[in-house]
Every structure is written in structure tokens, then in C-alpha cells.
Amino acid sequence: MTSDEFAEITGVSRETLEGFETWRRLLEETNAHTNLVGRSTLADFWERHALDSYQLWDHIPEGARRFADLGAGAGFPGLALALGLKDRGVDGQVLMVDSVGKKVAFLNKVIQATGVPAEARSIRVETLDPHTCVDVVTARAFAPLHKLLGYAHPLLKNGALGLFFKGRRYEEELTEARKNWTFESEVIPSRTSDGVILRIEEVKRVR
């Protein structure tokens, strides 16, 4: 997939596309000496990373403005959400959390270069202030669902929606998670892979 094909599919503005290109360039430069993503995946940035992340906008509730991306890594999907906020002219923010300082330094470099409404914090997810108020919680390639719900529960119990990328074994993860949690879930097929997006809400710990 090319950048123009990505723009045609998503409908983003030329300015937003330039933001994605800046992100791609900085990722390529940084990944040469700091392992952020698998090097072989960079050649397919526009579909495997950019579109894969940006497809979340098809499932985000209208009016959602505040996002938390757990285990943000190289910014998928957090930076894509922030670029989407800017593209839509929405007054919102994406909080990206990762325990690896080098990854957070990269995220901050992209935030500064693109001017997106985002903040990156170098902390462990479990130390995130439980009173943090967000509308949507996201994660991609971060943790098994039963652990992810534990990390995200302080945010989800306050009414946030969970949108979590999962692979082909998502059914096993759902079964394992239901041993300790009750929740409503919807399985959304991914547009870019054989994985899925899990839409999770009404999460409660099993007593």
C-alpha cells in the first residue's frame, strides 16, 4: 500500500498525511539503532501499521475526545488516534503510556514534529493514576487479555470503552479472561489482517 492509497481509504487531509509520513520517516531513522518495530514490517508501514491503527476510528463513539494507549511502543495506535483528532479538528488528547524510556523519547519526538494533541509518559501501566478520565482505552500487541483487563480496569470501570487488537487466538484469550472478569464484548474483524479488534465494556472483576 502507498501513502496515496492510505489517504484515499481513510479520507485524511494532505496535512494529516504529511504527519503520518513524518512519523514513518522518524520511525525508520530511529529503528535503525533502537528496536521499536520489526524491521521487516517497515516496508509495509501504510497498511500493516498506519491503516491497521487508523481503522479504530470506524469504531470510536461519537464525541470521544480522551484516549489512553497502554504499552504504546512506537505509537500504534496512539499516534494514529492523535493524528485523527487533529485531522477532525477535535479538541481532545491521547495519553500514551510505556515503561521503556527510549520508546517514550521516540513518541515525544513525533509529537513535537507533528504537533498532534498527545502526551507520552514513561511509567509502568499499573502505576497510572486510577482517576485518569478517558473515553477510550486502546492496546496493540501489549498483553494477554486477562492481564490487559487488570491494567485497564481502573479506566474501564469509570465508563471508558476498550478497543484492543488481538490475533487469531482471541477466542482463547476471551475464555481465559472470563475466569476472572465479566464483560460485554464484540469481535470486530480487522481490515488489514486475520486478527480482530475486541470491543470491551462493562468490565467487572469476578468476586
Q: What is the terminal separation in angstroms?
A: 48 Å
Helices, by number, come to: 7
> Helix content range of the residues, please?
25-40%
CATH class membership? Alpha Beta
Number of domains as seen in the coordinates: 1
The CATH topology annotation reads as Rossmann fold
Largest sheet: 7 strands, mixed
Would you tell me the overall average pLDDT? Answer: 95
Radius of gyration: 16 Å
E-strand count: 7
Lateral strand order in the biggest sheet: 3-2-1-4-5-7-6
Which CATH architecture? 3-Layer(aba) Sandwich
Given helix and strand content, the structural type is alpha/beta
Please provide the ordered H/E string of secondary-structure elements: HHHEHEHEEHEHEE
* Beta-strand share of residues: 15-25%
**CA-based shape:** globular
As residue ranges, the low-confidence spans are none
CATH superfamily: Vaccinia Virus protein VP39
Brief rundown of the structure:
The chain is an alpha/beta fold and 207 residues long.
Describe this structure in words.
This protein is α/β, with parallel strands linked by helices and 207 residues long. It has one domain: Vaccinia Virus protein VP39 (Rossmann fold, 3-Layer(aba) Sandwich), CATH 3.40.50.150. It has helices at residues 3-10, 14-31, 45-54, 78-88, 101-114, 145-156, 170-177, and strands at 66-70, 93-98, 118-122, 136-140, 161-166, 181-189, 196-205. The chain has a 7-stranded mixed β-sheet, with helices on both faces. Helix 4 (78-88) links the parallel strand 1 and strand 2 (93-98). The longest helix has 18 residues, at 14-31. The model has no long low-confidence stretch (mean pLDDT 95).
